[in-house]
Write a structure and sequence with these properties.
By secondary structure, the protein is mostly helical. α4 crosses α7. The radius of gyration is 14 Å and the shape is globular.
């Protein structure tokens, strides 16, 4: 599991990316706040990060990046609907984490075939394992 500094840096990276893309609406705020809640980061800390970003700590291992990507996929399906804008965000976050576009595309495609669109962890790991080797 990630420590607090890693969680804050991941969230800060996502906030910085959203600002860079000039995507600062209610949807983006709520999405990022949802990520913060999943990472057990308080709303106060989240709002502080928006104004005072911290340096991003790149996840060293491939498995840590896959786990984080899986969290994002699960979070995006919290309400069972997914807009094209959300799919693009997940895809871009996966690329920024250094994951292969083939694996990301396959995960996003396979989501449609699973109940509640949740790809099981073992299937996800197999997808990324093939691309990693």
């Amino acid at each position: 599991m990630f420590n607090r500094v890693e969680k804050l840096s991941l969230l800060s990276e996502m906030i910085a990316y959203a600002k860079k893309e000039e995507i600062e609406g209610v949807f983006e705020y709520n999405f990022l706040l949802g990520v913060a809640e999943q990472l057990n980061i308080s709303r106060e800390d989240f709002n502080y990060l928006i104004q005072h970003p911290i340096n991003y700590r790149h996840l060293k291992s491939h498995s840590e990046r896959v786990v984080q990507f899986h969290r994002l996929v699960l979070l995006m399906h919290e309400d069972s609907t997914m807009t094209k804008k959300e799919v693009i965000k997940i895809y871009n976050f996966g690329l920024r984490m250094g994951l292969s576009h083939e694996s990301i595309t396959k995960v996003l495609y396979l989501m449609e075939g699973f109940p509640n669109r949740m790809v099981p962890p073992d299937v996800l790991i197999d997808i990324f394992k093939v691309q990693y080797n």
